[in-house]
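Incident log, structure service

09:12 report received: a user says their structure output differs between two submissions of the same chain.
09:20 pulled the input from the user's history:
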Amino acid sequence: MQNSGYFDSPWPGEDAGPARLQTAPLTCALNIEAGASLQATSRRTQMSTMTVLGAPGEVFLLTHSVLRSHLGFSTSATVSLIDPITLKTIRQSIPLSGGPMWPGGMAVHANGSLIVVYGRYAHKLDRQCNLLKSYLLPIHEAYNSFVVLDNGLIVTKNLSDSTQAQLTTLHPESFKSACNDVICPEASIARLSAIGNTVYVVGVSRVWRYHWHEASQRLVRDTTWQCHYLQNASQSYAWDMVIDGDNGWLMDNGQHNYKMSMLGAGQNKAANRLIRISLKQSDSFQTWPVSGLPFGSITNPPLVDVARRIVVGFDSANQHLKAWRIIATPDLADSTDSSDVQLEDLWQLPEMGTASHLLLFPSSGELCVNDYKRFNEQVVVLDIETGQEKSRVSTGGWMQGVVFPSTGWHNDFYWCSMDRLTRVFKLAPNN
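09:34 re-ran on a clean worker, output below:
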């Protein structure tokens, strides 16, 4: 999927782009063969959120402070250019103003600059980590990252389960507001998704979208498209939506009590669900239970392997990872409801402590997930077709990661585990 608002690199922003497919380019792969194992190099961090890639060899790390937030003080973020192999800091930004604490987000814009949203601020930096401009966002709440549209505009929103979501659109060059802010129908916890110049907002009970209207230079709500996905009081709001071109995929029961891990953190009695919404017909949506166990919960999106027609979801609270095969789509299904998608169970792994965003190497079918047991986080590489484990390695982290991995430059990848950044790579047989 084209992401023309982002820098041309293997991983320019969170989830590899605004559709949130969490999929690496075909040129990247681990290719773990029989007898090979994973190796890890790590460093402690002050609450790492994500890494993104710029020009060849450039790896940028976003971290933020957290201890001050427990005392009710404002927090800040830092961007570092790090060595892609050793993870050592090469250059580092000044502390970036934040305010209310939330992990935030970072991307390399098509114009070559670094964009950061953290707390109540948006920041623009050059790739030497020098701060160029900052923008104070209008609501005194944390903002949870942003998307870059194909036209280069930056769209962000506040994070709340009670305050109505408000979209702010920034011009990438002037770093000023590109149009009036947009008040959404309800509050939103999930991060934004986008395809082309259309933004999707997952609210606490509904999903809706806005198109950038070039003539009027503003975001315009599509009043013909809205999905009321949460119709049961036993469930809670969904998190981020993945866009496969025809459908949006997400998971609900996002309300939780995360401290050090998501294990047992569910707050709703019902099982969490995988949800599919048609992008053409919003009243067409379907749900499937993930584990089927009570008090299921997540903080993150599912993953869709478009080429293999596989969807992967998880129940973090109950330690359950599951994959489905898409066996019929609206274009292929012969049913009375031509908008239905048919899924069949492919594999499932109980007792798999997965909570982070996922990572797929599509050329090799290698799926990277985390598996957390008490005070020990490991990264596991699975065959997405079978669920068979290829290898695993400890990150050294004592907290369960719930944030963002990314690919690297050397057929490797980076895993953020809140208190640690880990580089994971293949160790050749007999080494």
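09:41 both user submissions now match this output. Likely a transient worker issue. Closing.
09:42 reviewer note: The chain has one domain: 14-427. Residues 14-427 form a domain with the Methylamine Dehydrogenase; Chain H fold (CATH 2.130.10.10).
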